[in-house]
Amino acid sequence: MAENKNFKKYLPFVINNNNNNNQIFNENIEEKNKEKTKKNGLGWFLACLFVVSDMAGGGLVALPTAMIQAGFWSGIFLSFLMTLIYMTTSIALGKNWVILRRRWPSIYKKHCRQPYPEMGKRALGKWMGNVVSVCVDINQFGTTVVYLLLAAKNIHDTLKALFDTNISFCILLIILAFCLLPITFLNSPQDFWLAAVVAVTTTSLAVILICIGSLLDFNKCNQYHSMPDFRFTNFFLAVGTLLFAYGGHPAFPTIQNDMRKPEDFDKSSLLSFSILFCMYTPVCIIGYLTYGDSLRESVINSLQHVWIQQIVNLMITLHLIFTIIIVNNPLNQKVEEVFNIPHEFGWKRVIIRTGMMALVLFVAETVPSFGPLLDLIVRHLFQNRIFFGRRELGFN
């Protein structure tokens, strides 16, 4: 009888435990089936191309100037240090998203429109999710404006150099935004993977041509180049440029969320930042040795061979145009989430994304130069790097 009572005493717990195990088992089977149906997700190499395309264009044309401001050896050291730091933070950010997917599979193994803010929310509460959301939104919006301005500026310079045509810069901004608008209607990165491929290809060609053009200009320009005196203000401006050149993190969780195997994002991070360092370093060194203090906002305008200059202009412009689609997408998805817009394509998405592009265009039309906006908004104020450990997410 005593054994019977003990059996009855513990029986409910045994039954409940079995029910819970069965429920977890069924949920795991369901999630595995969902994962199997995700055939169109990004592979880790394609995700790597998205990461490179997210950062390479704007940083490529501005980094030689940062090398002048920081000094040769200190500039190279800073670039290498930033590569290591940002590679590490990118890997950490990716691991955090994997933690969320494992801890709350029913929520985060579906398509998530705001992965970065969700990490903040799960780690420190709703207030941190809101803080991260604001920082990411302003960063993405500011970067989109800068890239639109830079692309329009390159088109303006090319038309003036080749055809002696001086089209109003404001008109070019409107034309460019209008042409980009239909492509921004695509839902998420896996729907416009070709943009990343084109962006990386054009940037690679631009790097090769900038190096060739700078070497051809060396004998002519090196004898006239000079270096400015070292100033701490210039040094910190150089740090700001490097932060921008390597700071594409706000878009990374959105890219990772579209991967077939998000656990492989660490591979994407390692390869992408290695590629970036190999792209940036030769352009910075050769530009430093050839042009010196004559460099201003963009290395392109310092190239003396017109045909090289204009081809580089075209390559960088194409890169920026396709990168605008990548950078602006997380912000568009966030706004759609706020207004509860369906994931499927429809007129509501068209209205929301048209309104966002109109807002980007309005800000671009009111900014006379992309330099001040680049220095103030995109780099110094909102380069947030928030990542959360296992303990905050409930792991030991």
Do you know the CATH architecture? Up-down Bundle
The helical percent reads over 70%
Amount of beta strand: under 5%
Annotated CATH topology: Amino acid/polyamine transporter I
In whole angstroms, how far apart are the ends? 42 Å
Subcellular location: Membrane
Protein name: Aa_trans domain-containing protein
Keywords: Membrane, Transmembrane, Transmembrane helix, Transport
Transmembrane segments: 42-66, 72-93, 167-186, 192-218, 230-249, 269-291, 311-331, 351-378
In short:
The protein is mainly alpha-helical.
Summarize the structure in words.
Keywords: Membrane, Transmembrane, Transmembrane helix, Transport. The protein has 396 residues and is mainly alpha-helical. The protein has one domain: Amino acid/polyamine transporter I. The chain has helices at residues 2-37, 44-70, 72-103, 105-108, 115-124, 126-163, 169-184, 193-221, 232-246, 252-257, 265-291, 306-338, 347-366, 370-381. Helix 2 runs parallel beside helix 11 (265-291), helix 6 packs antiparallel against helix 12 and helix 7 (169-184) packs antiparallel against helix 13. The longest helix has 38 residues, at 126-163. The protein is globular.
